[in-house]
Write a structure and sequence with these properties.
There is one protein chain. This protein is mainly α. It has 2 domains: about 50 residues; about 30 residues, no CATH class. The chain contains 2 helices and 2 strands, in the order H-E-E-H. It has a two-stranded antiparallel sheet. The N and C termini lie far apart (about 105 Å).
């Protein structure tokens, strides 16, 4: 009779462990789904929002040459070099 009770306790323990495992698996699945939705939303947002370029077209005040730069200089590279060489 003692063996039967022991086996019944083992079955209950096993069933409890299986329920716990199923609950954990469901919880992991829900978390993974939420994470996937979050990542998907961020990727879509990045595709829709475009950043403005820092590169702009500038016309040199001295020679009139048009060039592209991200600096706030008003002289082209050639005129800038000439200006620096005159100072030295």
């Amino acid at each position: 009779m003692g063996d039967f009770i022991m086996a019944k306790d083992d079955e209950e323990l096993l069933e409890r462990k299986i329920r716990e495992w199923e609950e954990e698996a469901l919880e992991r699945k829900i978390k993974a789904s939420v994470q996937w939705n979050y990542n998907c939303s961020i990727k879509m947002f990045k595709n829709y929002v475009k950043r403005e370029s820092t590169i702009k077209n500038v016309t040199c005040e001295k020679c009139g040459k048009t060039y592209r730069t991200n600096s706030d200089k008003s002289l082209c590279f050639s005129c800038e070099e000439k200006k620096l060489s005159r100072k030295n």
